[in-house]
């Protein structure tokens, strides 16, 4: 009951109004402090988008402050149905039939659906009004099995419940700009603040509702059009947000069980929800300086580290944007291992993680991408940002509400509360890492029973392998400096020796293909049955860092970098390109004798060994 009294007093302090201490009634239990405030934002840029991506150059993309993130497009709220209603949450959906990428944009009065498959030309598809035409600041959306599940909060949504919308119907709209109808609805609660879905189990977790003391209201959505109440967890009162997973972390006691991490105003609260009729609280963890425990996300599927934000600490404690890092490898004893303090005073809101990066939307400071390379030491580092409010980074409630980062295209959508939808894309080349979202074309032979790649040697790297049609060796790293490197390729046969044609490609500009000029770095030029020797060449224009290298051996025909063929093998590797060879190239440009060429070869080998040992780019 201590928690009930605390939150009631908390509400009084925030609002200055006289709320009765209502147990877990919503009004007294909703002290997150959000009230849209666009004062003192400064001027917005005059967007002059010309149906082309505006690259981030010298810290600006069409007037928006940025670092390593390009602007694809902006769609004003007035052009997404729903009139001039402000935005709130955002989520994404990829149609499994058409491949279309859809932005699902929460509004105060409903939900807008925007096709961003062509990211520089977003198309408004339709607007779904709020259930019972309610309207208030909060709405939240998640997806499961081709359906969107929507809740809404605030006094304007007292009868909202759970809206369900069949996303596959977007394929068959008579024309863009339709007014849409909900597919199904679940009552049992009215307004609710948030919804999480565990796609592995088919359960939705509704939080901040007027049921279950504001805690976990569990719903079986295995049949999306017939959602059914399944259980309740109320022991720790109000939950503002949650993430629920099948646990794969180090705590063997709970491996394989369904675990929810709740962000409960003043604690991180972890619950075993495997049994919907008998959920068990495992821990509730307070922390120093807590003002409003808001939201968080596991770093990755290992479930041993999570990052969390507090929505009011910046404003109340007078600190810059702060992210809290926890070791949760023991679920009944989470340990804070560090805090990341950002460069601005902006309030943090929603964050998500992908490929060991953290993507935060921090209201007036916009999208912030943090590298988690040193997170086990309790550290994060900012590598990119895109700010939708250029004139202010103050701790006020306007700017970006949330982001969605899981499209295969790598495009990111952001909801700016007062302005509209932004579509952006990180420049992973500039971030000096491979794009974690890049997917390369498939390539494979149809038969490797007679011949296959027996051995690949490139510079000091060597790998021998057996008969397979395709081999993913991307965990193996080939360290190469710019310039030439020796190549030796050996075929293997089960019987008769056949003539094999070889090629090697490197994605030199890290754009996810092998089609650009110079990316075919080696060709045997003919087919032969014995070992092939030669050199590959990496041009000076190649991007530094790690990228994909592909080796193709094809029976008696010229290989292609993509697609299938009858006999042979394809092998993929990771190559780490460094900037070595400067000394050798300088010598090569000034001398021509055989003796000096031998000297150059020695220098090249020494440099390759050196930078391979360092594992870092040569900056000379």
From TrEMBL:
In this protein, which residues make up the domain named GEVED?
A: 501-576
Q: Which domain of life is it from?
A: Bacteria
Q: Cellular component GO terms, alphabetically?
A: extracellular region
Looking up SUPFAM superfamilies in the UniProt record yields: C-terminal (heme d1) domain of cytochrome cd1-nitrite reductase (SSF51004)
Give the matching InterPro entries: Choice_anch_B (IPR027589), GEVED (IPR045474), Haem_d1_sf (IPR011048), LVIVD (IPR013211)
Q: Which Pfam families match?
A: GEVED (PF20009), LVIVD (PF08309)
Protein name as annotated: Choice-of-anchor B family protein
């Amino acid at each position: 009951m201590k928690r009930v009294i605390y939150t009631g007093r908390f509400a009084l302090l925030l609002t200055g109004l006289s709320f009765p201490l209502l147990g877990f009634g919503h009004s007294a239990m909703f002290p997150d402090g959000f009230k849209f405030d666009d004062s003192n934002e400064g001027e917005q840029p005059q967007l002059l988008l010309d149906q082309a991506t505006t690259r981030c150059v010298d810290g600006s993309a069409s007037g928006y402050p940025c670092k390593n993130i390009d602007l694809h497009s902006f769609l004003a709220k007035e052009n997404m149905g729903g009139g001039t209603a402000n935005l709130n949450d955002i989520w994404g959906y990829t149609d499994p039939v058409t491949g279309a990428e859809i932005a699902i944009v929460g509004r105060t009065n409903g939900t807008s659906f925007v096709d961003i498959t062509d990211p520089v030309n977003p198309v408004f598809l339709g607007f779904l009004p709020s259930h019972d035409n309610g309207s208030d600041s909060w709405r939240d959306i998640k997806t499961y099995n081709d359906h969107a599940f929507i809740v809404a909060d605030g006094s304007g949504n007292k009868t909202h419940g759970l809206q369900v919308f069949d996303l596959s119907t977007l394929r068959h709209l008579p024309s863009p700009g339709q007014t849409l109808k909900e597919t199904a609805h679940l009552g049992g609660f009215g307004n609710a603040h948030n919804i999480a879905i565990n796609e592995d189990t088919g359960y939705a977790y509704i939080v901040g509702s007027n049921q279950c003391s504001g805690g976990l209201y569990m719903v079986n959505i295995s049949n999306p059009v017939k959602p059914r109440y399944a259980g309740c967890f109320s022991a720790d009162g109000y939950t503002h947000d949650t993430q629920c997973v099948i646990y794969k972390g180090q705590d063997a006691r709970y491996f394989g069980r369904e675990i929810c991490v709740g962000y409960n105003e003043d604690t991180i609260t972890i619950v075993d929800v495997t049994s919907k009729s008998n959920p068990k609280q495992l821990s509730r963890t307070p922390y120093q300086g807590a003002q409003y425990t808001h939201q968080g996300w596991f770093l990755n599927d290992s479930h041993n580290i999570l990052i969390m934000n507090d929505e009011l600490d910046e404003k109340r404690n007078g600190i810059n944007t702060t992210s809290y890092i926890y070791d949760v490898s023991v679920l009944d004893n989470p340990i804070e291992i560090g805090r990341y303090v950002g460069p601005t005073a902006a309030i943090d809101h929603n964050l998500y993680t992908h490929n060991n990066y953290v993507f935060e939307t921090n209201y007036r400071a916009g999208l912030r991408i943090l590298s988690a390379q040193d997170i086990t030491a309790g550290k994060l580092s900012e590598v990119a940002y895109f700010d939708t409010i250029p004139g202010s980074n103050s701790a006020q409630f306007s700017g970006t509400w949330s982001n969605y980062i899981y499209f295969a295209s790598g495009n990111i959508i952001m909801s700016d509360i007062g302005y509209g939808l932004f579509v952006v894309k990180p420049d992973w080349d500039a971030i000096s890492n491979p794009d974690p979202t890049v997917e390369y074309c498939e390539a494979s032979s149809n038969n490797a029973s007679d011949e296959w790649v027996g051995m690949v040697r490139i510079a000091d790297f060597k790998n021998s392998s057996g008969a397979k049609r395709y081999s993913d060796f991307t965990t193996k790293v080939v360290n190469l400096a710019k310039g030439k490197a020796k190549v030796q390729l050996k075929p293997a046969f089960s019987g008769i020796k056949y003539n094999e044609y070889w090629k090697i490609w490197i994605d030199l500009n890290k754009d996810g293909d092998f089609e650009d000029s110079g990316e075919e770095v080696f060709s045997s030029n003919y087919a032969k049955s014995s070992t092939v020797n030669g050199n590959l060449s990496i041009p000076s224009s190649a991007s530094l860092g790690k990228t994909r290298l592909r080796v193709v051996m094809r029976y008696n025909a010229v290989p292609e970098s993509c697609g299938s063929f009858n006999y042979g093998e394809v092998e993929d590797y990771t190559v780490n390109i460094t900037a070595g060879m400067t000394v050798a190239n300088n010598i090569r440009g000034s001398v021509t004798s055989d003796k000096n060429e031998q000297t150059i070869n020695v220098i090249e080998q020494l440099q390759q060994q050196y930078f391979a040992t360092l594992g870092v780019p040569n900056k000379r």
